[in-house]
Amino acid sequence: MIDLSLEDIEFIKILATSDATILQAGMNEATKKRLDDRVGVILREYYHENTRNTGTECTDQLLKFGITEDDGKAAIACARRLGIDIS
User: Fold this and answer.
1) Is residue 28 part of a domain?
2) Reported pTM
3) Range of 45's domain?
4) Are 41 and 9 in contact (CB under 8 A)?
5) How far apart are CA 55 and CA 81, in angstroms?
6) 49 domain-assigned
7) For residues 59 and 9, is the Cβ–Cβ distance under 8 A?
8) Phi, psi of 27 (to 5 degrees)
């Protein structure tokens, strides 16, 4: 089970609603590391749950914070464009 912080939720919401080109232009190394180390792990688990039917713990937690399936897909797509490995 992943313990989501408010910062994690905000990162995911930003990824879900932002243009990767704009984010990439303003992203520093610390932000990229945070995305790789923390948010990437969350999105990878979410991706695996939804593609391999391995459970719904992460999905349920994200829904609790108002992140829908469409938001999750958009965040994964944006993260991939930023170079974050999701699969």
Assistant:
1) yes
2) 0.88
3) 6-81
4) no
5) 26
6) yes
7) no
8) -90, 130
Rg from Cα positions in the chain: 12
Query: Can you tell me whether residue 6 is helix, strand or coil?
Result: helix
Count of CB atoms within 10 A of residue 46's CB? 25
The pair of three-digit structure tokens given for residue 24, joined into one six-digit string: 């990439």
Pick the closest to residue 58 from 47, 48, 46, 70 (CA basis). Answer: 46
Tokens of 44: 């990878």
The number of domains in the chain is: 1
- Using DSSP's 3-state secondary structure scheme, residue 85 falls into coil
User: In one letter, which amino acid is 75?
Assistant: A
- 86 in a structural domain: no
Q: Is residue 57 part of a domain?
A: yes
For tokens 């790789």, the residue is 36
Residues 22-67 pLDDT 10s:
888 888 888 888 888 889 999 999 999 989 988 888 999 999 999 9
